[in-house]
Amino acid sequence: MAPARRECGGWEMILPAGWLLLSALLMHPTLAKVCNDRTKHGQDNSWFARDGENLPIMVLMPMNESALMSSISQGIEPAVQLAIKHIRETRKYSFSLITKIYDTECDNAKGLRAFFDAICYGPKHLMIFGGVCPSVTSIIAESLEGWNLVQLSFAATTPVLADKKKYPNFFRTVPSDNAVNPAVVKFLNYYNWSRVGTLTQDVQRFSEVRNDLTNELEKADIQIADTESFSNDPCVNVKKLKDNDVRIIIGQFDENLASKVFCCAYNLNMFGSKYQWIIPGWYQGNWWEQANTTNCTTKKLLTAMEGYISVDFEPLSARQIKGISGRTPKEYEREYSRELQQKGVEASKFHGFAYDGIWVIAKTFTRVMELLRIKQRQNSYHNFTVDDREVGKLVLDVMNETNFFGVTGQVMFRNGERMGTIKFNQFQDGQEVKVGEYNAIADVLDLINNSIRFQGVEPPKDRTFVRLQRRHINVPLYSILSTITILGMFMAGAFLFFNIKNRNHRLIKMSSPYMNNLIILGGLLSYASIFLFGLDGGFVSDKEFETLCTVRTWILIVGYTTAFGAMFAKTWRVHAIFKNVKMKKKIIKDQKLLIIVGGMLLIDLCILICWQIVDPLKRTVEEYSLEADPQGRDIAIRPFLEHCENTHMTIWLGIVYAYKGLLMLFGCFLAWETRNVSIPALNDSKYIGMSVYNVGIMCIIGAAVSFLTRDQPNVQFCIVALVIIFCSTITLCLVFVPKFITMRTNPDAATQNRRLKFTQNQKKEDSKTSTSVTSVNQANTSRLDGLQTDNHRLRMRITELDKELEEVTMQLQDTPEKTPYIKQNHYPDANNILSIRNFTDGKDGEKSILKNQLEQKPQAQWGSMDPSRINRGPLDDINSPEHIQRRLSLQLPILHHAYLPSIGGVDASCTSPNGSPGSSPRHRHMPPSYRRRNSWPGPCATGSC
């Protein structure tokens, strides 16, 4: 068999105690026989009836200086002798205690041999006092029940001895290592620390304390965030504690590894105001200097150690009251110090527990003797005898009833465990200072006022308290952008007032005032969405925020479609009128444009309704990584941001972007196609193109930057708001500012200047056409191409003038009193229409008539017109004879010609009802080709109309 194994300072053994004791008996059979003879039950049990009896006590402790923990024993003997002396001096006890020390040498085999020798060769001991080395003590304590002996230890703190099933006859006056755990839990509760971590040296003694601490923490509902064990290098485990955000660390390790632990803590910056270390308090003084085997200097260790809390039992009570010996703890300590000086030995931290232990034995024997005497008197008629088993049971029961105040405090046992006082020390400025104590009997923690000094302004937190901080839009930024938005809405309102007030003016009426109102409405909706984009959870509740997600999306989409849909519809009407040359007449009214815009909005509503039903927008919270508190507090800031999202956000946004993109591309196409249309009152293509260009660029840039700044709500809101403001403002200004300027400067410039320009350009083009016709004699193909080009151009001009005639008719119906002036003012245009229509109606005789005109009239006669008439205003000669003649001779024909097209009575191919255009003074200045073409019988003359 393998021999028993003893750990250095530890408590493990491989073989049971019974095997060692049996081996000792087998090796010494003669001794076994003698031992058995001397230990017969009932032998001389009348000791309790005699006064002045010497009661022997077996004292087991290592006395050899070479043995482990022998320094403890050397300081114990003076305390034991002092206690026996004080007991004699009280004269309250009828016996004398005799102690005989047996040296165990802190070795399992030698300890068992010493115990066996004391049993076999020594006097009959009533109790065993001692037990310093945990391994030897546990072996002997396990066999005490068989010997009917009770052991009282003053230095064995190993938690394993608290198992009463295994060690029923074992008591100790010193609290066990587990006794500090209730005190630690009480300390944690005092500072409201509910989350801790443990760092334990991988040794049985510390593992047992940790296991018991785990049970105590679970009972107190304190979370154990992490449990780490190490053998040699603790740095990896310390790093894990930091990674798990453990702030309150309860350590269980000896002083040899404590220096390594604090060196790792220094390197990992796990000290200071954010951390609190709680370690055992039984280390030797200045242990960091003696046990420093690390690369850290003493200064670094002291820096990391500053503020740690050590927990250990109280060697002497702080209550200066007289105890069972009639002395205060201070008085006893002075006497003990004198004894040490006389013997020249060092003090032991367990001397007070040994002193109180002798008093426990004295009181126990006194009580046992009283009980035995009572039984003896009750059985006076019979021979009273008592055996060792009964005596042992009496001693065991009396020990559990012990309760007195000694030099170490109140001496009381609970299941053999001392309910002592636990002290708390704090490492301050290089030394430990007592800051409080815990009374296990009363379960009270008493901290000395203002003695604990934390390195921060407050105790450390048991975790990194995370404060959720909403990333919201700054109120000043929201106010500034809201102010700008309100100004934009006022501007849109001004444009709306301008458009409604002047809706009957030719310039506004020809630009479709209803469509202009829709553009303004779309701009107002876009402006309004800015207010909703600036609201977040700081202003509204979570439920209201989800509603805002939907409302602002609907408003922005509908506003965009309303504004740009109206613009594109206007452009489409211009494109349909002036680019479809095969149609002789085409009038597209505003009702049709409203239907187009309504169709676009219907598509938007279908998308939005499906979006809302299938996958509605909801409030989602995005959390970001922890940030340090800017004010330096021991908290971490976790920013979070609220978003409006759904499950398939990308798909829905893709549908909306695709639809809006196609709408914008279609608008660009229409604007490009109608860029050369010459009537500004009817054509906004130039400005629409500019609007689409600016809006497209801004939307692309805004969407990209907004996505990149998704985690910065202020930047994102600023970009979105500025893009909406810019796009809406630019669009409204490009549509209405030119009209406003024209109305302020020259209301009729849009029509008069364009007619003058058309006449001048027409002269030049007709001159070119004349030259071209002259060259037809040499190249028929070239001449025909030129005629076709002219025909195409003149047809477009006819359509333009038809629109003007419609406006004239509407004005005639609204203001009858102004009819003479309007008829007179538009009379040249009517002649132009009649001449141009006749010019374009002939097909078969067109070539020959044009050829005769070229041969009979010189080229200089083309387009001859009096410049004074052209440049003269419409009211310069309104009462002249020429104007009177016009009013009398052409008023009815022009009215007839202007009215019939509006009711569908005259087709664009028909000639004028005026039978003699040459009678008008205006025709004297028309080109020859026009005059002859008017006299040529057209389709109307033959009755085909």
Automatic annotation (TrEMBL):
Question: What's the main place this protein lives?
Answer: membrane
Keywords, alphabetical:
Cell membrane, Coiled coil, Disulfide bond, G-protein coupled receptor, Glycoprotein, Membrane, Phosphoprotein, Postsynaptic cell membrane, Receptor, Signal, Synapse, Transducer, Transmembrane, Transmembrane helix
- Segments passing through the bilayer: 477-498, 518-539, 551-572, 593-614, 649-672, 692-708, 714-737
Keyword presence, DNA damage: no
- Which chain positions lie within coiled-coil regions? 784-811
Any idea where the G-protein coupled receptors family 3 profile domain is?
477-759
GO biological process, any: gamma-aminobutyric acid signaling pathway
Location of region: Disordered: 752-776, 910-945
**Positions with biased composition (Polar residues):** 752-761, 910-919
Q: Where in the cell is it found?
A: Postsynaptic cell membrane
**One of the record's GO molecular function terms:** G protein-coupled GABA receptor activity
Question: Domain of life, per the record?
Answer: Eukaryota
* InterPro entries cross-referenced by the UniProt entry: ANF_lig-bd_rcpt (IPR001828), GBR2_CC (IPR041689), GPCR3_GABA-B (IPR002455), GPCR_3 (IPR000337), GPCR_3_C (IPR017978), GPCR_3_CS (IPR017979), GPCR_3_GABA_rcpt_B2 (IPR002457), Peripla_BP_I (IPR028082)
Give the membrane topology: Multi-pass membrane protein
- What GO terms fall under cellular component here? G protein-coupled receptor heterodimeric complex; postsynaptic membrane
Query: Which positions make up the signal peptide?
Result: 1-32
Pfam families listed in its UniProt record: 7tm_3 (PF00003), ANF_receptor (PF01094), GBR2_CC (PF18455)
> Carries keyword Transferase?
no
Which residue ranges have biased composition labelled Basic residues?
921-934
Tell me which PANTHER family the record gives: GABA-B RECEPTOR, GAMMA-AMINOBUTYRIC ACID TYPE B RECEPTOR SUBUNIT 2
Q: Hey, which family's this protein in?
A: Belongs to the G-protein coupled receptor 3 family. GABA-B receptor subfamily.
- What is the name listed in the Swiss-Prot or TrEMBL entry for this protein? Gamma-aminobutyric acid (GABA) B receptor, 2
Species source reads Takifugu rubripes (Japanese pufferfish)
